[in-house]
Specification:
Helix content: 25-40%
Number of domains: 2
Bound molecules: iron/sulfur cluster
Number of strands: 10
Shape: globular
Structural class: alpha+beta
Distance between the termini: 73 Å
Largest sheet: 6 strands, antiparallel
Order of helices and strands: EHEEHEHEHEHHHHEEHHEHEHH
């Protein structure tokens, strides 16, 4: 039996409406952290370990009868008495505002670029609000593109997969074994799922204390990655901006699995190279991102080059291309 979460964790009440339940067992099978157990001859599902619930709502989504209910109880401040980081100097804030302005203006981005920071274990914390609910990491990115700033320790994350990948927790056994990906029919076999898990990068467990996301123009701590949610044409110009002074071609790493945690964040974070992502099942199923958008993660160290290159491209190449200057006249 796993230990109960820290007192400051957000907790949930999990109930099953026995009048609706058909004892199909899907809630037991799909819960990634084993909140449910099958009891008796039925067998009948029981939410016997609600203190382990992450609020991911997988059980709610998978129950064919609408019998499972997950209700937020709330939680205290997980960072009481923790050392706070000094505010960013105005000069640095101004730089991030400038980057955001150039990206939005030259590309015509609808959504704010997002500053992403992974706070190493034990480091002082920026002055960023901790949400009162649990969110998936991809949901937090989508909220930040709309203007929200969020700092999320492990007990504010709702996706056990992304939380482990980003180094906040261990990967739960049902995910590590590949069993759950096969149940979701996201991969053909448990073996294929294990390969996917083995080949995807991840940080060591508990090396990161919190993820922080914010609109780039309002970043309260130094970002390691800038995430852009944009149309393919806009991402194309970002790629060209990154290569503008070198002609360098990029070996992008995209699979459709674990888009925002692995592809948009972790790969730029660890490699120092930009990366693109088409999104994944989880982020498309749990956020309002539209089907015509994709994602790019740019290491913050590369942003001065990208911004300079984008300004150059914006002077001629981008407007000419958008004006379709080589389009033959239509008969
Ligand atoms: S919300 Fe997620 S963690 Fe909680 S019981 Fe349902 S499947 Fe399990
Ligand atoms: S998934 Fe729904 S119907 Fe099936 S056992 Fe769980 S609560 Fe009952």
């Amino acid at each position: 039996m796993k230990p109960p979460p820290a007192p400051s964790a957000v907790t949930y009440s999990v109930t099953i409406d026995v009048g609706r339940c058909t004892n199909c067992g899907l809630c037991v099978a799909f819960c990634p952290v084993e909140v449910f157990e099958a009891q008796g001859a039925g067998p009948t599902p029981a939410a016997s370990r609600p203190e382990l619930c992450w609020g991911c709502e997988t059980c709610v989504g998978q129950c064919p009868s609408g019998a499972v209910h997950v209700a937020l109880n709330g939680g205290g401040d997980p960072f009481v008495n923790r050392e706070k980081a000094a505010p960013l100097p105005e000069e640095e804030r101004a730089l991030y505002r400038e980057w955001a302005g150039v990206l939005k203006e030259v590309l015509g981005l609808r959504w704010s670029p997002v500053a992403v920071s992974l706070i190493p274990a034990g480091d002082p914390l920026p002055d960023v609000p901790v949400p009162s609910e649990r969110l998936r990491y991809c949901q937090s990115l989508m909220a930040a593109r709309r203007g929200r700033s969020l700092m999320m320790p492990a007990n504010r994350h709702a996706c056990p997969d992304g939380t482990a990948i980003l180094g906040l927790t261990d990967l739960p056994p049902k995910l590590a074994s590949g069993e759950l990906y096969k149940l979701f029919r996201k991969l053909d076999s448990v073996e294929a799922a294990r390969t996917m898990v083995r080949e995807r990068p991840h940080l060591e467990p508990r090396t990161i204390d919190a993820t922080v996301v914010a609109p780039l123009a309002e970043a309260a701590c130094t970002p390691q990655v800038v995430a852009v949610i944009a149309q393919p044409e806009q991402v194309m110009w970002l790629c060209m901006s990154a290569a503008y002074y070198t002609g360098h071609r990029f070996d992008f790493h995209a699979s459709g699995y674990n888009a925002q945690c692995v592809e948009t964040t972790l790969i730029p974070y660890t490699s120092g190279e930009p990366n693109i992502s088409f999104g994944c099942y989880g982020c498309r199923a749990s956020s309002d991102v539209s089907d015509d958008l994709m994602f790019m993660g740019i290491p913050a160290s590369l942003m001065p080059t990208v911004v300079r290159g984008l300004r150059e491209l914006g002077a001629k190449a981008i407007p000419q291309s958008r004006n379709k200057i080589y389009l033959p006249p239509l008969m």
